[in-house]
Amino acid sequence: MHKLDTNAREQGVKDQNQKYQKYEQVQKDQVYHFSEQSKNELFDTEFEIKTCDFSLWLNGNNEEKQQFAHDFGTALEEIGFAILINHGVDANLYDTCEQHVIDFFETIPMEERMPYHAKRHGSVNQGYFPVKETSIIHPDLVEGWVFCRRAMNLDNDPQYKASDFWPRPDYEAKFRPLVEAHEKLIKPIMQSILTYLDCDPHHYDDKLTQTNFGFRLNYYPALKGELEKAEGGRMLGHEDVDLFTILPASSQEGLQVLNRKNMKWIRLNAPKGALIINTGDYMQRITNDRLPSTTHRVAQPMTEEARRNPRVSLPMAVYVWEDEMLEVLPSLADPKYPPIRAEDFHTRITSKFYGDDYRPEDKNSD
Question: 208 to each of 150, 162, 163, 202, 318, how far by Cα in Å?
Answer without folding.
Answer: 15, 24, 27, 10, 9
